[in-house]
Structure formats: structure tokens, C-alpha cells
Design brief:
heterodimer, A: alpha+beta, Heat Shock Protein 90, 2 domains, disordered N terminus, B: alpha/beta, Rossmann fold, OB fold (Dihydrolipoamide Acetyltransferase, E2P), 8 helices
Chain lengths: 357, 242
């Protein structure tokens, strides 16, 4: 998927969510492949009915397949070109327009076929076969209507699923651990008398984290913004846990303008602190490495694994949350792996370094 | 008054100490960063009140309170937490003192005024409410408090007056009865005799002695607890599943 695609998927499009005709992207490679396949199968069915098994008409199959595939692909191309217009029309009107486009293609190709095969190749004089033309248009109309209905229902289903996911993303994003909030407030209260400047900084850090978690806007943000949140988060936890928390971060230069979904790296650090450092009496080191290799951003967070039985439940939720958000935006192109390795727990997030236009 | 403040977060300890000092400059204040440290301080200084954070690494606040509460003259205990709905519900229903962080002055005053000895019964009920089993057993003697991780215990044997916890490093006398221990650690230990519990995961073999008695061989210790006839069938069933 391209960057533009990702953006389109991520931001709800007001025009798309109207009541118009839903059509899939018929210009996409997979769509073309499937249409070709379906065309060939249809041709096979027609010829089988016509000639039977014993005297199967192979030449007829070739001719029918060429005609049907040509019709379907040309209709698809027409619908693909008309899609922006169709989407804006009301549903009945849009459906009629789409059908008219399909019939137009059918009419043109029927006449062209007769002219090409009959007149140009065989040399007969050109005569319009009205009955044959009418038959072709009828078949085209019936199949076209069935296909449009199918596309429309499928489109609605996909949209509904996406809307549900969007709602889930927003609900998940706004979740901040209450523990973290009140502990941070406690830190601020502790810092105010002795170190007012640090207290002020803590207030700013906390408010930035909250702003990010409450944000409703573009699903993706510049990487630098997310890294800034990570730093703020770790500073707050550093005040809270004191010398027990050591943070070792290595950030390599990243492509300018790279983006990623908001709050999908910070929770990895939060998990490392809550499940890795906090249960350890003497604390430990959280390692954070950010790099960009072969067009993919890579974020690695590792923390010591607390002794068995101490580990607290709940880290799975944050990971599942990040995964479902990544799935909406990147499909299969993003990956989050988290697993223990010896006495270290490692989480690796890798995603395409898409640059927003 | 002597006060012990227990919290793993240095800034949280600092703030509570500052509030306590502002309130009564004459108080003796002690601090501890974790459960075992708190037990040691408690033994050395015998505070009147202990402020205990709930979420601490290793031994949490509620377990620490249970160990402290075993002393003959236990101090009053006030729990502190930033946010823990389960624990707060439990404190409310058991009428145990608690404070929410960030601690407010009036609330601190009220908690100190109401601070009373928390009974052993209350603490046990609290542990049940919050569905927690202790990580350590403790033994209180004149020389100090000794802690033993429950995971290390191979068997609990009831003697004349005390229960001894058998572990690879020796044995430790604990204050609870075998019945109390069985209730708390039922998943971990199995009763094999009127006076013996053994750690399920540590059973190595079941032998019959020349005398006709059945005994258990345990991992890492010499003790061979006797299995009574009444528990033999049940034990065999458990062994088959190991």
C-alpha cells in the first residue's frame, strides 16, 4: 500500500461516508486479475451450455472469453474513471449511471466485434445484428446489476467495519493509566516546594502526554513528535522511580517528515517501566533504539524480565491496542513483536517510513 | 510520636515526611524503600504509626502489613495508594485507614487521629479481599525478623507448638497455624498428614519404609514427611498428574 493509501484509510472521508454508490478500487491489480478470471469462467459456462461436453467448442470459448473479458475490463476501467462522479450522486442515480456506463461499453464492444470479425477479417458487408445486440445488452444489464449490487453491499460492510475500528482506536487512545496520572500529580506536589522549576517541567510533560492521548485528528504524527512524548514520559517516570530507572536511548537519524500513528511507541516504554523496572527492587535499564533500515522505521524497547511470579498482568492490552491501530493504517505492512528472550523482554515495532505529502 | 514511612518512590516519601514534620516537628521519622527494609526498621525503632505504600516491588504493602501485624505490639497502619480500586474497596469494607496520593493535609490529620491498631484478623481479611497470597513467610524472634520466600519452602510441619517451614537452607519457625497456611497457600501446598503440608512442585518420590509407613522424598531437603493412610489416595492422584 502506498503512503497516499494509508492516509486515505486513516482519515474518514466525508464524501465516502455519504449515501452514494460504493465501488471498490476497480483499477487495482488484484481487481483486474479477478475480473479476468471471472470473465473466463463465465465464458466457459456459456459455451458449455451451448455446445455440451462431448462437442465442446474450444474456438467458441476463445471468442466468448475474449469478448466477455474485454467487456468486463472495459466496464471496470469506465467505472474506475467515473468513480469520483458516481460517489457524489445519490444512490439510485449513481447506480443508473454506472449501469449506463456498463451498457455503453457493451453496445460499443458488440458493434466493434461484429465489425472487426465480420467485415474486416471475413470481408462480409457490415449489417447491424439487432437481435444479437439486444441479447448482449440484456446479458450485460443483468450481470452488471448483480455486480453493482454486490460491490455496493461489500463496500458498506467494509465501511462499517472501518468505522467500528476507528471508534475503537479513539476509545483506546484516550486511555491513560490512572495510576500514572495520580503518581505524576504526587511527584509534582513533591517537587513544588524544593524544586519549583522541575515541578513546572513535570506539569508541562504531563500536559503534553495528556494532549496526545486526547487528540482527535489525523491518525498519524511526525516521528519527532512521538519521540518527544517518549522523552517526556521517561522523564516523569525518572522522577518517580529515582535511581531505579536507567534509560539508555540510541536514536539514529530518521528520514525527514516520516510519520507514524500517535502513541504507538510510548506505550512500549510504559510497559517496560511498569512490568520490567517497577517490580524490581534495584530497578534496571530500559533500552530504546530507533533506526531506519531499508525504508522501514524500527523501534526497539527492551527491559529486564522480573523474576517469575512477580510479573503483573495487563501488558497484553496495550500491545493488542497498538496492533489493531497499526492494522487499520498499514494492513500487513507494520509489525509489532514482543517476547521474552532469556532474561530480557524485547518489543520491536517496525513499520514503513511513509512520508506524508 | 514515632512514624515510619514506607514507599519505593523517593519523592513520595519526601513529601509525606515533609507534611508530617510540618505538622509535628518533634516526631521521629523513619523511612524505608521496600517491605523487608520496613520490617527491619519496624523492629529496630518500634514506630507508633506506619505509612505503607501498596504497590512496591517484591513485597507489597498489604503483605508487609501482615508481617508487621504479627508482632506482639503492632503499630497502627495507614495504607497509601495513588489509585487501586480493589484495595480501596477492601480498606473501606474492613475499616482500615488509608490515604490517597497526592496526600492532602486534612486527610492526613484525620488518618492520624483515627489510626488504631489494625488487627491480625483485619489484615488477613484484607489479603483475602485483594486476592493476594504472601510471597514470604516471616519469623519474629528477639534477634530480628527473618523472611523466607514461600517458593523456597518444601514442607510445613506442625510441631508441638509451632509450625516449621522446611527449606534447603534449614528450617524456620512461623507463627501461623497449619490450617491458616493451608487456607492461604492451598494451591501450592498439599496436605499429606494431620501435621504436614508439602509443596506440590517439590515432590520427587513416594516410598514405603520397612516399618510400613509411606514417606515422601522432596527436592533439595533431607526431611522425609510421613504420609498418612487417609491422604495416600489423594496424593497418588496428584502425583500422577505431575
Amino acid at each position: 500500500m502506498t503512503a497516499a493509501d494509508a492516509q486515505r484509510r486513516a482519515t474518514p472521508d466525508s464524501a465516502r461516508s455519504g449515501r452514494g454508490l460504493r465501488l471498490p478500487d476497480l483499477c487495482a491489480g488484484t481487481a483486474v486479475l479477478f475480473l479476468g478470471l471471472i470473465g473466463a469462467l463465465l465464458a466457459f459456462c456459456f459455451v458449455l451450455f451451448d455446445s455440451g461436453l462431448r462437442a465442446f467448442d474450444w474456438i467458441g470459448l476463445g471468442r466468448a472469453a475474449a469478448f466477455i473479458c474485454w467487456n468486463m475490463l472495459a466496464s471496470a476501467a469506465a467505472l474506475c474513471a467515473l468513480a469520483p462522479v458516481l460517489r457524489r450522486l445519490r444512490l439510485p442515480l449513481g447506480a443508473c449511471a454506472a449501469l449506463a456506463a456498463i451498457l455503453g461499453v457493451c453496445l460499443f464492444s458488440s458493434i466493434a466485434q461484429r465489425w472487426l470479425l465480420g467485415t474486416v477479417i471475413a470481408g462480409y458487408p457490415f449489417v447491424l445484428d439487432v437481435e444479437g445486440l439486444f441479447r448482449n445488452l440484456l446479458v450485460g444489464a443483468l450481470l452488471g446489476m448483480a455486480a453493482l449490487r454486490y460491490f455496493h453491499l461489500q463496500g458498506e460492510l467494509i465501511e462499517r467495519e472501518r468505522a467500528e475500528l476507528d471508534a475503537r482506536i479513539r476509545a483506546l487512545q484516550a486511555r491513560i493509566r490512572p495510576h500514572f496520572l495520580f503518581n505524576s500529580m504526587n511527584i509534582i506536589a513533591s517537587l513544588i516546594p524544593g524544586e519549583p522549576e522541575q515541578a513546572e517541567r513535570a506539569v508541562l510533560d504531563l500536559s503534553e502526554l495528556f494532549r496526545a492521548s486526547l487528540r482527535e485528528g489525523p491518525a498519524t504524527v511526525p516521528v519527532a513528535e512521538e519521540l518527544d512524548l517518549c522523552e517526556r514520559y521517561m522523564r516523569l517516570e525518572g522522577w518517580r522511580l529515582g535511581a531505579r530507572l536507567r534509560f539508555d536511548s540510541r536514536i539514529e537519524p530518521l528520514p525527514a517528515g516520516a510519520t507514524l500513528p500517535s502513541l504507538c511507541v510510548q506505550p512500549l516504554l510504559e510497559n517496560a517501566v511498569y512490568h520490567g523496572i517497577q517490580p524490581l527492587q534495584d530497578g534496571g535499564v530500559v533500552r530504546f533504539e530507533v533506526s531506519c533500515v531499508a525504508g522501514r522505521l524500527r523501534f526497539e524497547v527492551s527491559n529486564p524480565l522480573p523474576p517469575e511470579g512477580v510479573a503483573s498482568a495487563g501488558s497484553g492490552m496495550a500491545l493488542a491496542n497498538i496492533r489493531s491501530r497499526l492494522a487499520v493504517i498499514y494492513g500487513d505492512a507494520a509489525e509489532l513483536i514482543a517476547a521474552p528472550e532469556g532474561n530480557v523482554y524485547r518489543a520491536i515495532l517496525s513499520l514503513p517510513s511513509t512520508v506524508s505529502a | 510520636m514515632k512514624v515510619l514511612v514506607v514507599d519505593d518512590e523517593p519523592l513520595a516519601r519526601q513529601r509525606l515526611c515533609r507534611m508530617l514534620r510540618a505538622r509535628a516537628p518533634g516526631d521521629e521519622l523513619y523511612q524505608a524503600a521496600n517491605g523487608p527494609e520496613a520490617l527491619e526498621q519496624n523492629r529496630l525503632f518500634e514506630p507508633d504509626v506506619v505509612f505503607l505504600d501498596i504497590r512496591m516491588p517484591g513485597m507489597d504493602g498489604i503483605e508487609t502489613a501482615r508481617h508487621i501485624g504479627q508482632a506482639a505490639q503492632p503499630p497502627a497502619i495507614v495504607f497509601c495508594t495513588a489509585y487501586d480500586q480493589y484495595a480501596i474497596d477492601a480498606f473501606e469494607s474492613r475499616a482500615v485507614g488509608y490515604l490517597l496520593k497526592p496526600v492532602q493535609e486534612q486527610k492526613l490529620e484525620a488518618a492520624l487521629a483515627a489510626a488504631a491498631r489494625t488487627t491480625r484478623y483485619q489484615l488477613q481479611a484484607l489479603a483475602q479481599d485483594t486476592r493476594q497470597e504472601r510471597r514470604c513467610l516471616s519469623s519474629h524472634t528477639s534477634t530480628g525478623t527473618r523472611l523466607l520466600e514461600v517458593a523456597e519452602v518444601r514442607a510445613l510441619l506442625a510441631g508441638h507448638k509451632y509450625v516449621s517451614a522446611i527449606h534447603p537452607g534449614g528450617s524456620l519457625l512461623v507463627d501461623e497455624s497449619l490450617r491458616e497456611l493451608e487456607e492461604e497457600f492451598g494451591d501450592r501446598f498439599l496436605r499429606v498428614h494431620r501435621n504436614a503440608l508439602v509443596a506440590r512442585a517439590r515432590v520427587r518420590a513416594l516410598h514405603r519404609e520397612k516399618s510400613g509407613e509411606w514417606v515422601l522424598e522432596l527436592d533439595g531437603v533431607e526431611e522425609r514427611p510421613v504420609v498418612s493412610r487417609r491422604h495416600l489416595a489423594e496424593l497418588r492422584a496428584v502425583l500422577e498428574h505431575l
